[in-house]
Design a protein that fits this description.
Layout: E1 2-7, E2 14-18, E3 33-37, H1 41-53, E4 57-61, H2 64-73, E5 78-81, H3 90-96
Helix pairs in contact: 2-3
């Protein structure tokens, strides 16, 4: 889904930007909690910020080991993980969860 934005003053064409989507909610529940796992801090933060803008509750972890520690403390509805990371890769993390 896209929404129109202002026209470009040089070309006269309008640019389209993605419209925010409401978070997925089950009746009587809270917005989905997502754990974003990536060893590249900028990538992790970017993904987390985008999800927060869309209304999700987001936590971040820098690798699979840190993600498992967070998963032991609190439940998450979704784990979004990078595959290649130090200490524990994403596939091992998902198999462990």
């Amino acid at each position: 889904m896209f929404q129109a934005s202002d026209q470009d003053s040089e070309t006269g064409s309008s640019q389209r930007t993605p419209a925010p989507h409401p978070p997925v909610e089950r009746p009587g529940s809270h917005p989905s909690k997502i754990l974003v796992v990536d060893d590249e801090e900028a990538v992790c933060r970017l993904i987390a910020d985008i999800l927060r803008i869309d209304g999700y509750e987001v936590s971040e972890a820098c690798d699979g080991v840190e993600a498992l520690e967070q998963l032991e403390r609190e439940p998450f509805d979704v784990v979004l993980t990078d595959m290649i990371m130090p200490r524990m890769d994403g596939l091992t993390l998902l198999k462990t969860v």
